[in-house]
Amino acid sequence: MDQHALITLLLFISFFLILTGGILKLTQRISMLPYTVALLLVGALAQFIVHTFHIPVHLELTADIIYFVLLPLLLFESAFHINFHQFRIQFKTITFIATFGILVSIFTIGYFLSGVIGYPLGVALLFGAIISSTDPIAVISLFKTLGAPKRLGLVADGESMFNDATGVILTRVVASFVVTGAAFQANSIYGSVGNFLYVFLGSMVFGLIAGYLFSKIIERIQNDRVIETTITVAAAIGSFVAAEHFFHFSGVISTVVTGIVMGNLGKTKFSVGVRGFVEEFWEYFAFISVSLVFFFATFNLDFSIFSENIYPIIIAILAVLVGRAVSVYLSFFITNRVPFFKDEPNVPLSWQHIMNWGGLRGVIPLVLVYSLPDEFAYKNDMLAFTLGAFLFTLIINGLTIRTLLLKLGLHLPKKEEEIMHEEMSIIEIADAKESLAELKDQEFDQDILVEMKRELDQEEKHIREHLNKVSSTEEFQKSLKIQTLNIERHALEDLYNQGYITENVYFDFDTELDLQQDALEYPEMNESAGIDETGKRSTHGSFRKRIVMLRKLAGQFPILKNFIKSSRESLIEERIGLLKVRIMTSTMVIEYLEKLDKLLKNTADNARHITKLVKEQKALINENKDELTKLTKEHPRLIQSYQKKLAYNLITQNHDSHGH
Taking the chain, what is the end-to-end CA distance rounded to the nearest angstrom? Predict the structure, then answer.
């Protein structure tokens, strides 16, 4: 590269970074415009300016750079943040829609295209395999902004990652027939099925091994955020390239599994300070990767392909929309009714609408279509269809998904949010008055203190009047339940950051709180086995079953006795931690409710409801105390071991916080 080309590249990078920062800031203010959609529009505008004014910029993002560099980084970042403890609540549902659902989508798209415009069925199925992978980046960020249910985001994110993997493998299988022109014969089909299983299972095993080994490496490095972060980057790219190049596995599956393992097992090896740095680093890395992919998707795009194939492209887009709808509604119809899925919470119809319309297309279809050989006769058609569906879903679906979310009420209800804000304001004013009263004996002008007290009284009066005006009894009760869950969630996070509980306990209890909030805000979530109408899980029975299972395994496999004993002890210690944190958070909720009751001077109905909630929390405390007492009697040595580990964690955490 000569100096002129280097300077041009560096200037472009500088301009690009400033541009992406500006676009992000703009989309944060204009909430109707997703960041990825804005990048597509700006990329097209940049191409127009470069061509119109003959600016000497000749840059492109090649398929190899996208596939072997940016794709592994994006996949790893998403997988690294997957909470397996929450993911397992909906594991069967997610894997079903990511396998059965994608097959339904492929065949629906294939037969639609073949039937409407007479496309060869094999080629139409190949397009279905290429385009069926979803990428809900813009939708997930919108979920977070609007306060949509975390479980809905988890289902969308999990489905996307798994159908990325199945989509890549199925595209390979279909392409092996269509691109080469081979006939669909029994022997070749059996070979393809065998190859599918080899790639799928081999990739998972490879990802598990890679994730475990990289996690062990991180465990040996203490409090060095630069080295530990560098290892995560090596894990992301290395697991992808090694799986693809040396074993002919799926790099997508391998990197996803590696990311999940390191994001759950490996994350426990980081100290608190390092963990935060790694998460922020990957958030920025993902931002840059997404920005590059979506900007160059239109910056390097030849728009003439649309004018030459406009009618087939419209039919292809319709096929994609129909295929997605059939896939989503049929899959969830089955998972909500078939007994195999009864131990998982149902997916409400309103959530299904979002899953359907939020099935945006992203990086994977672009990579797959560009990877088709140039001599393939239908490559330009495939390219036009894929880019058409890609742009349509990102721009049309991406710009309207917010409206659909709000219309369906899949966000924290405005009224309840307003009530909670006013309640917290009253408590904050009460705390401010107490602090003000403590200043009386200090060197302050009494007139100033009296004036400040008068201002606080006036502010409190306005808040009370507004609260009485906006809140009905039903809304007050619902807001109160949501607030108690928020109190428990904040308390849980504090306990975790202090080193009082392990990551497993943190995620288990956080999942319980999410399920309770889902059941409260979306009562159409039907009752499932192990999950009652309030969203509570019966974890006592499952804990006892796991203990019995480990005892049986110890009897059947004596060689694994020590390993099983260690697993059993860890399970009991985590149960002890979970019971203790439940007691502590319930106690904090009771303190909040009693304080709120005293300050609000509520109506009789509201007061009765607060009293009822207090009784429920006290009953939960007693229930958890009884089980804790029973465990203490059954396992006195493990109680001592738990307390010793807890003391060590608290001392270490305190040392780390002072050291950094």
Answer: 43
Q: Is 234 helix (H, G, I), strand (E, B) or coil?
A: helix
Is the CB of residue 237 less than 8 Å from the CB of residue 72? yes
Residue 537 and residue 534: Cα distance in Å, rounded? 9
Query: What gap in Å lies between CA 180 and CA 106, rounded to an integer?
Result: 20
Helix axes 398-407, 137-146, angle to 10 degrees: 30
Can you state the angle between helices 272-299 and 3-29, rounded to 10 degrees? 100
**Calpha distance 381→374 (Å, rounded):** 12
Written in H, E and C, the secondary structure of 50-99 is HHHCCCCCCCCCCHHHHHHHHHHHHHHHHHHCCCHHHHHHHHHHHHHHHH
- 115-154 pLDDT per residue, tens: 999 889 999 999 999 999 888 666 776 677 677 777 888 8
Instruction: Give the lowest-confidence range in 9-23, 125-139, 347-361, 597-611.
Output: 597-611
Length of the chain: 660
Phi-psi region of 499 (alpha: psi -120 to 50; beta: other; left: phi over 0): left
**For tokens 């006795």, what's the residue?**
561
Number of neighbours of residue 563 by Cβ within 10 angstroms: 12
Q: At 322, list the tokens.
A: 């129909």
Question: Among all chains, which residue has been given the structure tokens 């009047």?
Answer: 465
Query: Tokens 């108690």 label which residue?
Result: 484
- Torsion angle defined by CA atoms of residues 113, 114, 117 and 119, in that order, rounded to the nearest 10 degrees: 110
Confidence at residue 316, expressed as pLDDT on a 0 to 100 scale: 95
Containing H/E element for 421? helix 414-438
Compute the half-sphere exposure of residue 127: CA atoms within 13 Å on the CB side of its CA: 33
Question: HSE (CB half, 13 Å, CA atoms) of 362?
Answer: 31
β-bridge partners, 528? 531
d(C-alpha 361, C-alpha 391), whole Å: 8
**CA angle (584, 602, 590) in 5-degree steps:** 5
The pair of structure tokens assigned to 177 is: 């027939």
Residue 182: phi and psi, rounded to 5, are -70, 150
Residue type for position 216: K
- In this structure, what token pair is assigned to residue 261? 């393992």
The residue that leads in pLDDT, 456 or 466, is 456
Whether the CB-CB separation of 159 and 134 falls below 8 Å is answered with: yes
Q: What is the torsional sign of CA 301, 304, 310, 313? A: negative
Question: What mean pLDDT do residues 300-313 have?
Answer: 83
Side chain identity at 442, as an amino acid letter?
Q
- For 244-274, letters b (16+ CB in 10 Å) and e give beebebbbbbbbbbbbbbbbbbbbebbbbeb
**For residue 459, what are the contacts with CB-CB under 8 A and spacing of at least 6?**
429
In a 3-state reduction of DSSP, which class is residue 528? strand
Cα dihedral sign for 107, 306, 64, 361? negative
